[in-house]
Structure formats: structure tokens, C-alpha cells
Amino acid sequence: MHIQAAIFDLDGLLLDTERTAREAWVQVAAESDVSIPDALVASMVGRRIPDIIALLAEYVGSAEHASHLMARSHVHYEAIVDARPVDVKAGAHELFDALDAMGIPRAIATSSKRQYFAHKTRASGLPERVRAVVCGDEVEHGKPAPDIYLAAAEALGIEPKACLAFEDSGPGIASASSAGMLAVLVPDHGEPSAATLAIASAVFRDLRDCIPYVRTAAGHAPG
């Protein structure tokens, strides 16, 4: 079956937000005297806020403390985004242009809360180029559960098996794959795990590099 729709993660895939998140956590660590290792921050990628708080609680030993740290990270993150709009990742608009030319509709499936989505995307031009957006606080279970990708496919009116998903994280790839979609991995930071690579349908350096693959998957000449 040729793909009929494309569904995209947001943070670290379409937007260079992971760098901003790391900056925010560095500031949280500095003001709270809590060491927050890069590995812990990396484990947060692709996850919803409640799941991140659970990871933090396990690390710091207190759900209350973890919630406080999470709140402080949001304060710093919002301040950084206010001062410096988040960059769109290389190739994002080029891939969207290619999908436009093929008549393929798009959705965004992001673990971010709806209230944060508009703020971080305000200077990106991305929301105007998709038909639907599903946020992490609008589904019961976050990534790696399939809920958000199933909801995005439903919003587009396309069967999941006819959707091509794009992700930068292990939890995201697992989510899209569990939903029955082809899941393309475009890693943001660090090397993907063997488990993630095993379920990814393809791996590319950036979104621009995905275009020939997408054309083939949609039944078009690679071009």
C-alpha cells in the first residue's frame, strides 16, 4: 500500500527544541544545586510531562521535588524561547513542499502540551502547513504507546497503515510502529539504540534526505 499521509513529531524533528531544553535544564541545575546528567535529559526526549516528572522523581527521590524542577524548567524554557525563536530543522520546509507537490496531507503528533505548542511554533510557519495537530495532553497514554499516532491518523481520516511517521526518538519510533505505521527515524542527538534501529523503517541524516524515500513510498518516481 502506498502511503497517503505523513505524521510528524515536533521537538527535535521539525524544531530544534532539544538544544533549548538542555539549556533550560542547565539553568535549573545551577539554581537548585541538583546535578542533572545529560543522560537523564536525553531520556526525557519524546515523552510527556507526567512521564518526565516520573523519571525525575525516580532520580531525585521525591515527586514533589521533581514537579518543582519540571516547573522551573518550563520557566527557563519559555524565557529562552521568548528571547530566541526556535529554529526550524534543516529540510523541514523542503519536505513539506515535496509532500504538497504529491498532494499528501500532514499532521503533527507532539508530546508537548497544547498550551506550549503555539508558543514554540509561533515563528516557524509549521502549524499553517499541517491539517491537524494532536498534543500529548489530548491522549490517554504518551509515547511509546501508540495513542497519539492513532489519534493523528483519525484526525486526518487515513488508516494508520497508510501513514508514514517521522520521529527523532526511540519512544516516538516505538509509538508510530505500534500504531502500525512505517516509522522513519531522523536522529537529533546521540546514537539511536539497536532496539530503535530494529523497528525503524528507514534512517536519515535530516528531513531533506527523506524526500526520495517518501516519493517512492507514495508511489511517485524518486525524482
Number of strands: 6
Q: What is the CA-CA span between the terminal residues?
A: 20 Å
- Assigned CATH superfamily of the largest domain: HAD superfamily/HAD-like
Query: Which whole number gives the mean pLDDT?
Result: 92
Number of domains: 2
Tell me the overall shape.
globular
CATH architecture level-2 label of the largest domain: 3-Layer(aba) Sandwich
**Share of β-strand residues:** 5-15%
What proportion of the residues is helical, as a percent range? 40-55%
Rg, Cα atoms, Å = 17 Å
Question: How would you describe what is shown here?
Answer:
There is one protein chain. With 223 residues, the protein is an alpha/beta fold. α1 crosses α4 and α3 packs across α4. It has a six-stranded parallel sheet, with helices on one face. Helices cover 48% and strands 11% of the residues. The radius of gyration is 17 Å and the shape is globular. The two termini are 20 Å apart.
List the topology elements:
Elements: E1 5-8, H1 17-32, H2 38-44, H3 49-60, H4 63-83, H5 92-102, E2 106-110, H6 114-121, E3 132-135, H7 147-156, E4 163-167, H8 170-178, E5 182-185, H9 194-199, E6 202-203, H10 211-217
Parallel strand pairs: 1-2, 1-4, 2-3, 4-5, 5-6
Helix pairs in contact: 1-4, 3-4
